[in-house]
Fold these 2 entries.
Entry 1:
Amino acid sequence: MPHTPIHIIGGGLAGSEAAWQVAEAGLAVVLHEMRPVRQTEAHKTDGLAELVCSNSFRSDDAGTNAVGLLHEEMRRAQSLIMAAGDRHKLPAGGALAVDRDLFSADVTRQLEGHPLISIERGEVAGLPPAEWDSVIIATGPLTSPPLSAAIQQLTGEGELAFFDAIAPIVHLDSIDASITWRQSRYDKAGPGGTGADYINCPMSREQYEAFIDALLAGDKTSFKEWEASTPYFDGCLPIEVMAERGRETLRFGPMKPVGLSNPHATTNGPGERLHAVVQLRQDNALGTLWNMVGFQTKLKHAEQVRVLRMIPGLENAEFARLGGLHRNTFLNSPKLLDGSLRLKAEPRLRFAGQITGCEGYVESAAIGLLAGRAAATERLRLAWVAPPATTAFGALLGHITGGHISIDDGPREGPRSFQPMNVNFGLFPELEAPSHDAQGRKIKGKERGAARKRALSARALADLDRWLAAPRQAAAE
Ligand SMILES: Cc1cc2nc3c(=O)[nH]c(=O)nc-3n(C[C@H](O)[C@H](O)[C@H](O)COP(=O)(O)OP(=O)(O)OC[C@H]3O[C@@H](n4cnc5c(N)ncnc54)[C@H](O)[C@@H]3O)c2cc1C
């Protein structure tokens, strides 16, 4: 008898990956995506796996960076999202950036063309019907209100939304090339890059101080009362909030001047020590649009144009998109979900992607990959074995389903303690940093940190390969 289909709600990063994994396990999938019938406040197209903001999957360095390691683990697990990302990569130094339109079109084509996947366009506007016995909910940070309300009623949790800010995009032909220059930090070439992949805007001390003054005085989008106390995710702080935390915060964050040298003649001649730098990264394959790196902002639009044009090289900048605010809906997963991402209160429902409390395109797709595999394993009546905690998959899953220890079970007054997180080496079980290199030389100072990360990565990939190769046992009845 053919298997009844697994239903996946949401064709974003997580839902697309989950659908692929289930279908590749030989099982039928129905993927429900509400766009274009109903849009979200951030998506612009009807494409599956649309990237709503930056076009970067971040570092592709599997040796010393946790998200680079996650890329590699996903590639080894036959990820659709990584394969499409690799096919449409753009130059971006050590990062993996993609052409968002070609990437999304590729994912859509692969899913539409799979014989075991059918795609239904329409909103699932409440709890899935009872006859859907295996469901993955991957509706993301902008889950439609009727579905969030239904989930909320089921879980008994309070409203779980807060606001993040997004970065502006500039037209290349409006950037002054006599002031800016192209260079990647430390001239790092990375995948598909040249070492000169970013556009850099230099700032002197005076220009930086004037810019901070303008940010602090700038007219901000006002929050509704209940939004005002909701915290930002630290990796996505608006520049004006960073400036409020301290005048030097931006210079140690997105505006840090390290690893760059200005070739243009300035007061002190070429190569002068830079005080601060604003970087822009290519956003489309044509190279006509450039994204301001780390420049999320909630300044009012007219104010953004005025303040951002104070940046040397951007005096006449034309903006293809200005910064803005977005909603982020996520569950208190460590309390609500089991180790295979099922809702404890209703195990036919699994969750995947950002709604589970991971953060970022890659992490969301990775949790989609695991949810898809877990759902397929269950349908095939095999025992689910979670990826080892030493892998990036396992570390991320651990954060969501149990790794976070200070769960507030009592009545809450402040924000909940479980917060969305990018994958990072802090989530991995400890490993003693090697003291000597392969040649027997003592590893010193800063090098030890990098050596520790390389050791964590090597351990992760070896454990992952064993996990992927292990035969699956029948589930206990
Ligand atoms: C404005 C904004 C900017 C962001 N910027 C970045 C960034 O720069 N870098 C980064 O790594 N991450 C960013 N994120 C986070 C990003 O959303 C996630 O990393 C990633 O897209 C989440 O993947 P997902 O599959 O969980 O959700 P999504 O990719 O959002 O996919 C969810 C899908 O579910 C659909 N859907 C929702 N409700 C229903 C329903 N009831 N029925 C049917 N379909 C439904 C939606 O239309 C959508 O297609 C941003 C998020 C937002 C909102």
Entry 2:
Amino acid sequence: MDQANILIIGGGIVGCAIAVELSRHWPDVFLLEQYPRLGMGTSTRNSGVIHSGIYYPRNSLKARHCLEGNRLSFEFCEKHNVAHRRTGKLVVAGDSAEEAALAALKNRGEANGVEGLRLIGPSEIRAREPHVAGVAALDVPSTGIVSAEELVRAYARIAVSQGANIVTHARVVSLAADKNSVRVGAHIGDMPGSQTEIASNQAARWDPQTDRSSETVANEVGEEEIEARCVINSAGLYADDIAALLGNRSWKIYPVRGEYCEVRGAKSSLINGLVYPLPHADGLSLGMHFTKTLWGTTLIGPTAKYVEGKENYERDRLPVSYFLPGARHLLPELDETSSTHRTWHSRLRYHPRSAGLERNSFSRNRIPRSHRSSVNSPPRARTSLRSPRLEFWCGGLLLTVF
Ligand SMILES: Cc1cc2nc3c(=O)[nH]c(=O)nc-3n(C[C@H](O)[C@H](O)[C@H](O)COP(=O)(O)OP(=O)(O)OC[C@H]3O[C@@H](n4cnc5c(N)ncnc54)[C@H](O)[C@@H]3O)c2cc1C
């Protein structure tokens, strides 16, 4: 059986960032990812926005981490040549009825320590975003965009260079804790068409050059066991399933899918940076916004809808016409005949239950009745045995990275 000091479950942005930090201090850090490549979950199915921290309740962990994460993310991207842009963003009030909410958002952002916030009027909006209709806007200079794929890869590359072992295509299927360690059972190589890697001395590991694992033990499929002193659950949408492997069934993730629509061609230049409406009253999303991508198109979205199934990215996708009425509210020149295409795929959203770190920020009423069940203790998703002792709250950490 292989031995690990620390075993990280999940190779999304959170797992990879944790691997960087821990491999800096500890030998024998392993990261297991179930898919053939890193970041194939939510981490590369998002808007790629480096958020500022304006939305969260004062003194909340989300607010603090988001602010610090914003600064660290830009620093990291600059240092490691990860594609990004400091676009700033406008949160736009479409009519005067929304102006009070805009002012309240500014106050909240300032209370959180976000710098440079300004309320601007129509002429300044036009100077920044000539095609956007709005009576007022909150200018948020510290928001930006990043290539999520490159960011995940950069973290993984650094972790590997510090000695971490990253193994893709290895799905954790069992966890058994005893006094001093956790036995981690992983199923290796069960995804059709991908290579097989195992976490042993001869294992094929993720290769920073190719973004794949090497083929040292190709075609070997089966179960592997690793004995780890500390296990970290960064399995994203599956964090509840991982917690359940250790008997913690007190929380559950309800997947919310967000879909985007992409504007290409001439009409993509209607937007220069990031343009948001005020956050949606249901609290499920920040509202359908416009994101000028690093590759020059404009994304409209995401929507937010509870779905059955954590892999439900494609079923019952929305037509382009669904996006237009909301989008035209801020961008009247957008029309059916413009080069508006469905985006390449829809996205799935992680949403902790009310038992997450931010109790106030999530109302149980937002969970559809069919999805409701009892909520007990918070999702403490870690197992820590001998030193190093680590505590990891899965739900809260999602926002620390960006
Ligand atoms: C529509 C949408 C838009 C968003 N926009 C933004 C944005 O603009 N800016 C921002 O900061 N955040 C955004 N987010 C949030 C952000 O994407 C997530 O917070 C972040 O990606 C979560 O990363 P993660 O590593 O926890 O999860 P994931 O990326 O899902 O990684 C978890 C990994 O664990 C693996 N895994 C699961 N189970 C196992 C197992 N048993 N064994 C091995 N591996 C396993 C999965 O395959 C996956 O790769 C958005 C989210 C959504 C849904």
